[in-house]
Amino acid sequence: MSILVPFKAFRPIEDKVKEIASRPYDVLNAQEAREICKDNPNSFYRVIKPELEFSDDADHYAAEVYKKGKENFDRLVDAGLMVQDETENYYAYQIVMNGHTQTGLVGCCSIDDYFNNVIKKHELTRPDKEEDRKNHVRYSKLNYEPVFFAYPHVNSIDELVVDVKNDAPVYDITTDDGLQHTLWIINDTDKVTAIKALFEAQVPSIYVADGHHRTAAGALVGEEFRNEAKGNAADGGRYNYFMAVLFPDNQLKIIDYNRVAKDLNGMDEATFIAKVSEKFDVEENEGEYKPNALHHFGMYLNNKWYKLVAKEGTYNDNDPVEVLDVTILSKQVLEPLLNIVDLRTDKRIDFVGGIRGLGELEKRVNSGEMAVAFALNPVSMQQLMDISDNDMIMPPKVTWFEPKLRSGMFVHEL
Q: Which of 75, 225, 344, 412 is deepest in the core (most CB within 10 A)?
């Protein structure tokens, strides 16, 4: 069963939360982050993405960069702009986006749950990105950003969270991207005890939704600190835990994650469509086509949209990975027709989050930058959990969760 413990969060003071809170570290590159916070010395980007304060040709993985992030965090604390809570609390965190509402619990998960596979993963991590996040924890002894987890919903936990939301929140802000972020402190002794007990009794597994690199960093560096202290899992050391926001699975929204390819691998348009037709029923569509069923795809080529439906025998509905539409597209089109085999390294393929809409696919193709685009139906939470439960790995760039968490609203000290 799962361990979720309360903690004493560092949090912005109420009238500074909107100024401090930022989007996650991996949403923008250094140049984009630099532009956004150029007039805001208190942006949390300066903590989680301190390379923005260095030149583009500097080594963004140098020790000085990580030290600068911690220095910027300490400056916020020393100036009284971020203050640590005096009691160990849970927090309820609600995000509203375009009428969709999801509310998660903020707490700390056990590093041993990560190693024992109670916390289940579905993606491989890249060593360079993992090491970058580990260095942030090593140099700061803080979890700056929470991991985004899901858990199988439990009615009694839902009811407790609803009750918490009847109280006045500590934050209720609407950010520049139109998202509403609301936070409640849970410090009632009975509620704190109940949350911990409910997770231990009724939540057998936790699933990484967004943040595999931060999850690995939090667990592995926590273990490093525990070993240095000659500690153990039961000694109460904060290195035994890392910060997360846990959402019930039935509140989460995964949107499409689409593909664009640079060329047709030497084929002309008619030949390519003929080849695709061997594995798919192909029908020209009037206007854009957004798939809304499993094994249905949209294809945009030469100013035209096509509806593709995978033929019987091109997929295996009994295999959690083979049934995925991204797998079908790779095995029936990208690999055999376009010779795009490694999605992680091939420069002829790119990925477009559904948050940008199908118009972005048209734009990339119409500009001549790309030759063809494919729109996919989103994977479901059930598919993600099935793959995780079977210790399998999803292909790259499959899940795009919206809305995203805001960083800087709570920080965990190891």
A: 412
3-state secondary structure of 221: helix
Q: For 347-375, write each residue's pLDDT tens digit.
A: 999 999 888 899 999 999 999 999 999 99
Tell me which H or E stretch contains 351. strand 349-353
Token pair 């986006």 in the structure block, residue: 97
CA distance 112 to 119: 9
Q: How far is residue 176's CA from residue 25's CA, in Å, rounded to a whole number?
A: 17
Please name which of 293, 209, 214, 291 lies closest in space to residue 251, comparing C-alpha atoms.
209
CATH topology classification for 257-377: 3.30.1760
Tens digits of residue pLDDT in 373-387: 999 999 999 999 999
Domain ranges of the chain: 4-253+402-413, 257-377
- DSSP E strands: which ranges in 51-174? 82-84, 90-97, 100-110, 119-120, 142-143, 147-151, 171-174
pLDDT in tens, 246-287: 999 999 989 999 999 999 999 999 999 999 999 999 999 999
Note whether 404 and 23 are within 8 A (CB). yes
Supply the pTM of this predicted model: 0.89
